[in-house]
Design a protein that fits this description.
The structure holds 2 protein chains of 2 kinds. Chain A is mainly alpha-helical. Chain A is built from 4 helices and no strands. Chain B has a 3-stranded antiparallel sheet with strand order 1-3-2. Classes of the chains: A mainly alpha, B mainly alpha.
C-alpha cells in the first residue's frame, strides 16, 4: 500500500518536472499555458491520490478530497481567464512553419 | 403570493441546501452548534447570491438537481482521461512535434452548470484549452490538432464527457 502511494507521489513530481520543461520550450502564450496548467493539475491529482492512499479512511481523507474538488474547479477557471484575455487581445496562435508557407 | 415570489423562495432554499452540503464536507462535524452556525451563514449567503447561483430563467428540474449515480462515476472518468492524455503530452514536450490550432464546435447541453462543467473538463484534460463559450459554440485551443473539421474535432475532444453530463444534468 505504501509503495503504491509513493509511486503516485513520484509520478506527481515527474509530471511537474515535465510541465516546467514545457513552459520553457513551447513557443507562445497558449501552448505555454497548456504545458503549465495541465501538467500542474496532473501532478497535483497524483500527489493527492498518493496522500489519500497513505492516510487510509479518515476525516483527513475527506478534507483532501474537498481540496482536490476545489482544485478541479479553480485551476481550469484561472487558465481559461488567461487564455480568453489573450484571445480577445487578438494574439494569433503559433503554427508550424511548413503549414504557414502552404497557406500563403 | 404570485409565482415570481414562490420561485424566489425556492431558489433561496436550494442555494442554502447546496451551501450546507459544502459546509458539512468541510467541517465533518454534526454537532448542533456547528449545524446551526452553518445554516445561519449559508442562509445569509443565499440571500445575497441566489440570483447568481440559479438564474431566473432556469426552471427545469434536471438543470437544478443532478442525478446522483452518474455524478459519482463522472470524476473517475475525468481522472482516467486526464492521465491518458498526460502521458500523450510528455512526448509532445520532448520532441516539440506540436500542431496547435483553434477549433470551434457546438455543444448540445442546455443548463448553465453542465456547460460550465463541460468547458472545465475540456480545460482539465491536457492538450485542450477552452478559450470562450458564446451561445452554443465552444472555442477550443488544441495542441496537436488532428483535424479542423468541427464535427470530428467535437467527437475527439468532447469524447464521453458530453454523454455523461447529459445523464447528470440536461
Amino acid at each position: 500500500m505504501r509503495l503504491i502511494a509513493y509511486l503516485f507521489i513520484g509520478m506527481g513530481v515527474f509530471f511537474a518536472t515535465f510541465g516546467n520543461i514545457g513552459i520553457l520550450r513551447f513557443p507562445d502564450v497558449y501552448t505555454r499555458l497548456q504545458a503549465s496548467s495541465k501538467c500542474g493539475i496532473t501532478s497535483i491529482i497524483s500527489i493527492f491520490i498518493g496522500l489519500m492512499i497513505l492516510e487510509g479512511l479518515s476525516f483527513v481523507t475527506v478534507r483532501i478530497l474537498v481540496i482536490t474538488m476545489f482544485f478541479f474547479i479553480t485551476s481550469p477557471v484561472s487558465s481559461h481567464a488567461i487564455g480568453r484575455s489573450a484571445y480577445e487581445e487578438g494574439i494569433l496562435p503559433w503554427r508550424k512553419e511548413k503549414e504557414k508557407e502552404k497557406g500563403e | 403570493m404570485d409565482i415570481h415570489q414562490k420561485w424566489k423562495i425556492v431558489r433561496i432554499l436550494l442555494t442554502t441546501v447546496y451551501l450546507m452540503i459544502g459546509w458539512l464536507a468541510f467541517t465533518c462535524n454534526i454537532a448542533p452548534f456547528s449545524l446551526l452556525l452553518g445554516f445561519l451563514f449559508s442562509f445569509t449567503l443565499a440571500l445575497f447570491t441566489y440570483d447568481i447561483f440559479i438564474e431566473k430563467r432556469e426552471v427545469a428540474r434536471r438543470a437544478l438537481i443532478p442525478r446522483i449515480s452518474p455524478l459519482l462515476i463522472y470524476p473517475f472518468v475525468l481522472i482516467f482521461k486526464i492521465y491518458l492524455s498526460s502521458f500523450k503530452m510528455i512526448p509532445a514536450i520532448l520532441t516539440m512535434e506540436i500542431n496547435p490550432r483553434i477549433v470551434h464546435f457546438r455543444t448540445r447541453l442546455k443548463s448553465e452548470i453542465a456547460r460550465a462543467l463541460l468547458a472545465n473538463s475540456i480545460t482539465l484534460t491536457p492538450g485542450t484549452l477552452t478559450l470562450d463559450l458564446y451561445e452554443d459554440y465552444l472555442i477550443v485551443h488544441w495542441l496537436n490538432a488532428k483535424t479542423i473539421h468541427s464535427h470530428y474535432a467535437a467527437k475527439l475532444i468532447k469524447g464521453h464527457f458530453e454523454t455523461w453530463l447529459k445523464k447528470i444534468w440536461i
